[in-house]
Amino acid sequence: QRLVRTHSQPLCIGQKQKWFLLRLVSNEQRVRMDLTGKPEFDGWRWVSYWYPLGQVVTFKREVYRRALKELAPRLLARD
C-alpha cells in the first residue's frame, strides 16, 4: 500500500527496487542471457558508471542518482 501514489493522476503504483553492486570474477564470455525460455534481458554491455542517469526515464532519474551516489564509495574503495 505504501507504494501507491494516491495524490497523482493517473494513479500510479510504484515498484520497490533493490540495488546491488557486484563484481564479475569470471570471464565475461560466460555471461549468458539465453538460458531461459523467456529471458528478461536480451544483452548486456559495460558502460561508464554514471551513464544510466542519461538513459533512464525522467521520473526515475532521481532514484537512480541516489542509488548510484550511495554505491559509488564502495566501488572506489574496491581492492
From TrEMBL:
Keywords linked to the UniProt accession: Hydrolase
An example Gene Ontology molecular-function term: hydrolase activity
Protein name: RNA pyrophosphohydrolase
Lineage, top ranks: Bacteria, Pseudomonadati, Pseudomonadota, Gammaproteobacteria, Pseudomonadales
